[in-house]
Amino acid sequence: MSTPPTLKLPPCARAYRLDTARGAFAVHDARPDGHPAGTALLVPGFTGSKECFIGLLEPLAAAGFRVLAVDGRGQHESPGPREESAYAQRELALDVLAQAEALGGPVHLLGHSLGGLITRAAVLLDPAPFRSLTVLSSGPAAIDETQQVRVRMLIEALGTLEMEAVWQAMRELDPVEAADESTPPEIGAFLHRRWLNTVPEQLTVTGRQMLSEPDRVAELAAVALPKHVISGAVDYAWPVPLMDAMAERLAAHRTVIEGAEHSPNAEQPAATAAALAGFWRGVR
């Protein structure tokens, strides 16, 4: 889960609901002064939300880009049904395509973690609405075996407990984070609220996706779209050497953000924004 550095939107951004052919989605929309050099759509990861990208909004807008960070269906402030079929990967990928269409495309597409798998699926369904694809802290297939244990435990708990009880159980399993006094109270309260707002079926189905995702790198490499792989210097979900190899297979631009782990967007937003803006400027 990404912990945003702040919850305050910069002056260049506003929050609203983006209407699409597949429903309305909660977004943060940051706009530059003058005509944008491009538009980017940012898709969050497992247990995440649009707030995961809040640190990127101001520097990317200052670099000349319009940026929309979105809550996917069933995530935080975007509604979703209590039916597992609604969260199949294809359904989530079709949502991304609808969001891009609503923005007037083509857009630069970015997916963080689970969002990298969803955005990859969207590009493989139809690359036309996109100018580029950036995979942020996401790998070629299923997550690392050490993390699969945690996700399986979470899925099992979601099948038997209420969301509040699962939250408390997660805090007990991660005592260092739970006792981290450096997390401001308002951020801690937000993380709790976001968890309770997320549809449990969304977490269950997308958790299974991370456990069983096949390697689709060869398919993606065949798509004639500029690609960028970004990660921190350390990653627990997909080891960094795995992402290095994926970037080579994709003939993708590769960036490693020093001082960051699984969420460079929140941990080192200035460096991450600079890497994104540099890549997007080079896309023709």
UniProtKB/TrEMBL annotation:
One Pfam family cited in the UniProt record for this chain: Abhydrolase_6
GO CC terms, sorted: membrane
SUPFAM superfamilies: alpha/beta-Hydrolases (SSF53474)
GO molecular function: hydrolase activity
Keywords of the record: Hydrolase
Keyword Ribonucleoprotein: no
Keyword Phosphoprotein found: no
The AB hydrolase-1 domain, residue ranges: 41-275
Listed name of the protein: Hydrolase
